[in-house]
Amino acid sequence: MTNVNPLLIPLQNSIPSSPNSSCTSSPPESPISCSGGQSCFYTCETLANFSHFSKADSYQSAHHPASFRHEHSLLIPSCIESQPSSAANLTAGSKSRKKEDPDSRIVYINNPVRTNEKYEISGNRVCTSKYTVLSFLPRNLFEQFHRFAYIYFLLIVILNQVPALAVFGRTASLFPLMFVLVLTAIKDGYEDWGRHRSDREENMRTSLVLQEGHYKPKKWDQIQVGEMVKLLSNQIVPCDMVLLGSSDPSGVAYVETLNLDGESNLKSRYARQETADKHPESGPISGALICELPNRNIYEFTAYMDLNGVQLPVGPNNIILRGCEVKNTAWVVGVVAYAGRETKAMLNSSGAQSKRSRLEQYMNRETGWLIVFLIVICLVGGFGTALWVQTHLQWLPIIQFYKLTAGDDMFTGVVGEAITAFLSCIIIFQIMIPISLYISMEVVRLGQSYFMIRDMEMYHPASDTPFQCRALNINEDLGQVKYLFSDKTGTLTENKMEFHTASVDGIDYCDASVDPVAGNVEASNRLANLHQVEVGTEAWRPNVVAKLDPKLVRLLQSPLHTIGRKVAHEYMLVLAACNTIVPTRVKVSPTGQLEMQAANSDEDVGLLEYQGESPDEQALVSAAAAYGYSLVERTSSSIVLNVLGEIQRYQVLGIHEFDSIRKRMSVVVECPDRTIKLLVKGADTSVMDIVATTIAESPRSLKSAVNCDSLVEDKHHAEVVLRTLGHLDNYAREGLRTLVVASKELTQREVEEWRFHYAKASTALTDRVGMVRNTATLVENNLTLLGATGVEDKLQQGVPETIASLREAGIKVWILTGDKQETAISVGFSCSLLTRDMQQIVINENTRAGCQEAIINAKAMHGIMSTWKERRFSFGRHNNSLGGCSNHPLALIIDGNSLVHALSEELEQDLYELAIACRVVICCRVAPLQKAGIVSLVKRKSKEMTLAVGDGANDVSMIQMADVGVAISGQEGRQAVMASDFAFGQFRFLRQLLFVHGHWNYQRLGYMVLYNFYRNAVFVMVLFWFIFYTAFSPQTALTDCNLVFYSLLYTSIPTIVTGILDKDLSHRTLLNYPQLYGSGQREEAYNQTLFWATMLDMLWQSLVIFYVPFFIYNVSDIDLYSLGCLWVIAVVVLVNVNLAMDILHWNWVTHVAIWGSVIATFLGQIIMDSLSFSDDLLSHYWVVYHVAGDARSWLSLVLTVIIALAPRFCVKVVVQNIWPSDIQIAREAEIIGGRHDCRSEPSMELNEVALP
Question: P-type ATPase N-terminal domain: from which residue to which, for each copy (predicted)?
Fold first, then answer.
């Protein structure tokens, strides 16, 4: 007998009728005869929906029949729809109607030609590459010149091509910009070549496609929308396909979405029963799929199939997406809905989030100051030229440069000469803005990421999860975090749920153990036999280990005649049936082709594994199976349970899936005794509001179950509610995750009304989720409370120690969770975030006025001043905490209802002031957007570095809002990982990431930026001092090649190596002393004071470099270019020795980089001065040999280095001995202790860091 799913064909009845009968009015609850041998069952209230359309509906039906039918087709059964109507013309075909709908697409099954002739549908060819051979050059240049610095250097190159402004060779002036552009283009081209290769491999794959009545191989890039594709086990899905059938008779298929969203657990997908029974090779399948337009939401899909006039709703459980892999299913068949770039995987193929680090923002600020300084010194050159020309006008005719006597007048007047000199100075001093810094920072960040990824201290072997660095431009921000926002479940906890305790009918069953019948052989065998189920000729039993309460086991095995036994039965029925878990049989097949093969060869009984997306549901289903209520089989239309050894089949009429608004899940099932029940589980705040308050409101099944007075029943019902609420509170205090379980027996009238609206909602193409949600409210009311569950989610290893270290480092840790307040508080104590000496400020308000009053009263009680008062009395002290006069640390606990009002514009300032005055903040029952709102509030108000860490899709908004987003690769999928900047497997790895790598990265890059500003500025200032002796002309003593190679070759390698490898302290010291992390929060490695001090030191060193050789050779016949050669060598040696003074960790790579750069400079001078093939090179020919042969040059080089670095050396000695920082103290302790663990050194005393 063929099973007809009421969900799929709503309002269909098996009552026979004449084939020629037509629809007529009927009494209430009487069948309506329909053409085609079927009957429709409607009430008069239902028919009223068809006969009482509004005037607007009548007008629309008369003038726009297509849109009218689209809007009301789900209200009118096919029998009525086929008859003529006096109110409207309903003869328009569904195909023409759908073609006119701009928000949907019609796909003709197994008819790609007809499908593609109407719509502009892309093929299945994918192209993830950015460039082609023709577009590479223009597009790559266009992208590169989005950087303002590149435009600046392009303007410099253009100015240098003007003959009157050319300071050095036109070709040489192109080299710096060309070098950067070509290097970046090579990198981009290599990356894109890899994408081209990957695309080619992807497009050349083959799959079986129905062609000429048989499935034949076809390349992926030739597959079209509308074609039917057949996939075998372990094959990749080539496009988005709506499932039509599978090797499983029920139409179930299993897929792995690892390539799509990173989730490794298997997902179940279903084919409609109407299509699962058909085989395309034996007979054609005709029909149409009306679906929404392509979009990037991989978790939603709205469509319906039209098969011979019957509309079948299709949702996300009926589609398998491109990139998934078929598992545990011999074959599947589907129709292509989206192909190529329109697939959801391709629409979601975007790179990591792009963020700008705070150091880079500061660097842009200092770059602005350098531009101002550059303009000032160029103005000096311009005004100096004007002044010199004005005072030497009488000498200009005899100066060869101006050629006034030769008739070729190059004199442009005083103003013209000043402007020319100004522009020429900009060209010659252009390297004041270090173009190489951009490339150097990218290389350094790449090197830092390489070592972070290879750090085995952040590798989680249990889940085989390495560290992931998804954003390469914010490495240094890891060393400056001040606020850390953390999710709880899966982030602080393991998210591996274990059923811990049950509350059934007001009784708390909390004495659970793994084997409640230990020692009783007979009871153990009886329990094992109850779990075992015969499927065909094989025996299967659930592969579960759960804690069982002996009293509950005995109650469930007692006769089914008491109210307590019936409640316990329905309680377990909800746990076993109200879920999305799919049982998978794991036994080695004879062919050995299936993947999940976990059967023990020593056992003759196969095992049932429960596959699901939610760890909570897996724990609940496993617990029900352990108590004897095993989920054996699930299809789209039925659920098979082994209830204490008896096989029972429940017909699924409809499912209302869990969502963040309803916070509950319900399923409507038809029981074996033909009664229809609603099974519900969900959050206590959601389910308790719809539980019947008296027994009079509860379903008739319980009222008739016992013969007691209604007042007694009301009292018992009230006691059950109160006891259950008490149990929920106790569970939450123990840190357990809680759910409430309820049920309801539906009347025939309720079922009919619900079916009608559910059929309409489930086939809607627009706002289907909202319509289904509204339909659920029709039956989700006056429920019978069955009990509650307590599921344990243990803390991850090392969480308390990590949080203690974070707080010791000066980082404020906030918990933002959707769990109950009591659960969040319990976890806060268990992870050492809350302590017994803290004063808790609890805010649970539902109104704006109440929330405002609670916040203001809390501030007044604990003496918390407003921000403006704090600034007024702080006298310029940087104080980010508004901690009041309380003698005890404060902890703020606030719920989501209060945050609705507290995050408003009127109250957010008061909330912020209260929150930052507290040492701990816990926000419970918060929605995802509220998490992002809290992060945004602190980020805007405090201007401090924020870090958010989470593991689930509800944490994505928070992760993206924070300055640094960190994801835990856990049990809740990969949505958080895909939105994050960094990802790893355990919360405890934050210590290694922040204290070690974060500190190192910040110290390295902070120094690197300052050093790059210094090395370029000191070189420019040497050129600047020279113009005072050349009549302010742009004449330079350096060769063009030296001007170009200085920042690109002579001095770039050492700073890159230092930025990657240097480290001030060992990782052991940084982990043992979290207070050292405060140096990054205080911006000790890079700040404006250090910048201006470096610039002053730069001015002194540039004067020394210029004047020491100048005075030594003052009375000599040295030529211009020999002096310039000496200046180049002196500045390169000086900046490298300066760098060597500041290096804290030496290795052979550092030695090679620094001293190799000095040697490379000498070799460069030798090579360039040995060339004579061009007239421009003759003036520099053999210069370096003459300089090297003069003892005075070596004397000037030594004196330059000593005199220039003497002030810097003295200042460092004084500061480190009189005002040492924590870093310097720790470093000295490391040196004294022989680089062993510094904690053993009693002499090491760090400056005190106040806990947040």
Answer: 107-172
